[in-house]
Amino acid sequence: MPTSTSAPSPITSRDNRWLKLFRMALRGGFPTESGSVGVEGVRLVQEALTSGCKIEAILFSESGERHRSRLAPLISRPEIAFPILKTTDRLFEGIADTEHPQGIAALVLPRPAQLDDLFSVPEGKSSPLVVVLAGVQDPGNVGTILRTAAAFGATGAVTSATGQSGTASPFSPKALRSSAGAALHLPVVHGATLAILLTQFKLNNISTVATCVHDGSGAHAPVAPWEIDWCQPIALLVGNEGAGLPEDVVHSADARIHIPLERQVESLNAAAAASVLFYEAFRQRHRD
Question: Could you tell me the CATH number of the domain that includes residue 53?
Fold first, then answer.
């Protein structure tokens, strides 16, 4: 029966194939040729090991070996098989993306997700609750939104570009740290076309709710978060940090939402606004 294997001796060359892959995924922030992304730190590696995603390899530094006992129940299971590598502290610092690395990292293949996965209702959920990140450029905001979405019961997420900007990858090192690994647990469709996405929501009877940067008036005035029925199938559209959502997307949405503020500040940032809205969705879906 296959088991996890350990390297016979520490890797001491920076030109080693495995170190090049870890350097690309962590410091470079790019997926490897196989599609694996890099996670760094004991907590994120633990999240990766419990996510059900395929692990390509785990790397410890000399000082990072202190974390091995914490992860032993997860990396010694007989049903999994991946190399467990070791290198020097100096070489690990050369591939790490953090200023003070903990000495442990993993290459992880995110679980593939399709749009159809977002339309089904997972076990234990009443109806789909999807977040669409359209033009959210800051990877810290992307990660925080996904972390909040997962915490308050979202069933999936989509990233999409707008005419003005793209959305940062939810699997970049900074986004993964900000999401605390939530991006590895939540079904995430990366890079969907916004127009096709909105059409698919309508065809699958999922109401779209567009966040608005500014309040308004008239027949199409935004409503407050508590005026939305969050128990129905909903896709929450979150736009760019500065420009918000494109006007045509806002006007085509089934509802527009604006968070009333007591003090006249410019606005909440994208991650903070999403947190408020997801809490209201959670409150309504659990009030019984």
Answer: 3.30.1330.30
